[in-house]
Specification:
The chain is built from 16 helices and eleven strands. It has a domain of 310 residues: Amidase signature (AS) domain (Amidase signature (AS) enzymes), CATH 3.90.1300.10. Strands 1-3-2-4-6-5-10-11-9-7-8 form an eleven-stranded mixed beta sheet, with helices on both faces. The chain is globular, with a radius of gyration of 21 Å. Helix 7 packs antiparallel against helix 8 and helix 10 crosses helix 12. It is an alpha/beta fold. It binds glutamine. Glutamine binds next to loops.
Length: 498
């Protein structure tokens, strides 16, 4: 089989059997990027030399019989929000253009230690604010299924790279849906682990109480392999959970839902949802029931307030986090010609360095946190957050996992929602509740929507630290749906190779 079509698990097996070298695998993916990325624009930076050097190192270790982990020699694409020593990190922003971080994020170094080969840095909405990559200062990425559509966001470059066979694996971050939503609209798997289950050290902060790094892959097992390699306690992140990583790889292999209680969230469907998405979601639920799961309906009445609460909490935290871009410490410094004082240079730099959406959020968040409004806005939103956590607790008393569509619609057109922030925000309607509650959730492909032929995602949500349940359910659904559709869903990808 063509190397770029192989899954991470298949590549890993071929590498350890000596059928292929890490150098060959890496070169095949670099060639694929070179041949396709003028159309996809998944990458902001391709680290060809560093990747080949890493691959050579893995091949050398293998030759001497050193024990290697499952990801040794497997390529991975890294969202440009993770710091990477020796490579730029821009977060899709002009304000960090040209910044080379002096250190690796914990997850970057874990990937390197695991022998995963870092191909480069992927495009994203500026500072992870958006659902389409159109907020990237460096231009949007495109959806490999249809080049006129967005790949979702904010981890849209990572999702597009995996869907376009440029990389078998990628990492992203999910603050309101930024892993699951692009995964869903690109027809791949994406997981938001339990908050605190994956380290935020070296992940440029957007909204610190929500930001959660996680894996993207073409299969559930591959996502589990990456999830396991990147996760676990990190003393450098004060919110990191000091507990073992849930057994996600074993769960993906188990792929068994018999006797499992699955709750369909009543509030996450109906009006405003694309009929074709609902059709595929209903079929996926039927498939899970046919595999022996006990399906019931559950109600989470406060989920309807999740989006407004998120758009107070996330901007509030972002307004504080992004204060560090002061023209002195990182990246861009505008107008420092000796005629301006530090405050004027800072103002000019932020004016020139930040895009419109980032400015909108900073203004919104500063307002929500200001004295006199704090209780009415930020305080109220935190109370709503508690109600959402209680809704989850009540639902998880009745069900082991909850399910919903991952997104209300399939991929939308480039430009279609760019001037309508509210329409853009609605893309995360289904994903935001799990971010606010800090629990775990996954999106797994559930077929092509019959109304437009584009991928739809099934979202599975589990209680905090029960990430393994996601993989049990997602792997069972993946196996049954692959059988139903006759082939892995990505085999249908058009637009690129047609
Ligand atoms: N689209 C949402 C936002 O713009 C979520 C982004 C994310 O998860 N990083 O805030």
């Amino acid at each position: 089989m063509e190397l770029v079509r192989m899954t991470a698990a298949e590549l890993s097996a071929a590498l350890s059997a000596g059928e292929v070298s890490a150098a060959e695998v890496t070169r095949a993916h670099l060639d694929r990027i070179a041949a396709t990325d003028d159309r996809i624009h998944a990458f902001l930076h391709v680290a060809a030399d560093a990747a080949l050097a890493q691959a050579a190192e893995v091949d050398g270790k293998r030759a001497t019989g050193e024990p290697l982990g499952p990801l040794a020699g497997v390529p991975v694409a890294v969202k440009d929000v993770f710091t990477t020593a020796g490579m730029p990190t821009t977060c899709g922003s002009r304000i960090l253009d040209g910044w080379h971080p002096p250190y690796d994020a914990t997850i970057t170094s874990r990937l390197k230690q695991a022998g995963a080969v870092i191909l480069g840095k992927t495009n994203m909405d500026e500072f992870a604010m958006g659902s389409s990559t159109e907020n990237s200062a460096f231009g949007p990425s495109r959806n490999p299924w249809d080049l006129s559509k967005v790949p979702g966001g904010s981890s849209g470059g990572s999702a597009a790279a995996v869907a376009a066979y440029q990389a078998p694996l990628a990492i992203g971050t999910d603050t309101g849906g930024s892993i699951r939503q692009p995964a869903a609209v690109c027809g791949i798997v994406g997981t938001k682990p339990t908050y605190g289950g994956s380290s935020r050290y070296g992940v440029v902060a957007f909204a610190s109480s929500l930001d959660t790094p996680g894996p993207l892959a073409r299969t559930v097992l591959d996502a589990a392999l990456l999830h396991e390699a990147m996760s676990g306690h990190d003393p450098m992140d004060s919110t990191s959970i000091d507990a073992p990583v849930p057994p996600v790889v074993a769960a993906a292999r188990q792929a068994d839902v018999s006797g499992m209680r699955i709750g369909v969230v009543a509030e996450l469907s109906g009006e405003g949802y694309q009929p074709g998405v609902l059709t595929r979601f209903a079929e996926a639920v039927d498939v899970l029931a046919s595999l022996g799961a006990k399906v019931t309906e559950v109600s989470c009445p406060h989920f309807r307030y999740a989006l407004p609460a998120y758009y107070l909490i996330a901007p509030s935290e972002c307004s504080s986090n992004l204060a560090r871009f002061d023209a002195m410490r990182y990246g861009l410094r505008a107008g420092d010609d000796g005629t301006r004082d530090a405050e004027q240079v800072m103002a000019l730099t932020r004016e020139q360095g930040f895009g419109a959406e980032v400015k909108r959020r900073i203004i919104l968040g500063t307002y929500a946190l200001s004295s006199g409004y704090y209780d009415a806005y930020y305080g109220k939103a935190q109370q709503v957050r508690t109600l959402i956590i209680r809704d989850f607790e009540a639902a998880f008393a009745q069900a082991d996992v909850l399910v919903s569509p991952a997104t209300p619609t399939t991929a939308f057109g480039i430009g279609e929602r760019a001037d309508d922030p509210m329409a853009m925000y609605l893309a995360d309607l289904c994903t935001i509740p799990s971010d606010l509650a800090g629990n775990a959730a996954i999106s797994v492909p559930c077929g092509l929507a019959p109304d437009d032929g584009l991928p739809a995602g099934l979202q599975v949500m589990a209680p905090a630290l029960a990430d393994d349940r996601l993989y049990r359910v997602a792997a069972a659904a993946e196996a049954a749906l692959t059988e139903r559709w006759g082939q892995p869903l990505l085999g249908h990808a058009r637009g690129l190779d047609a």
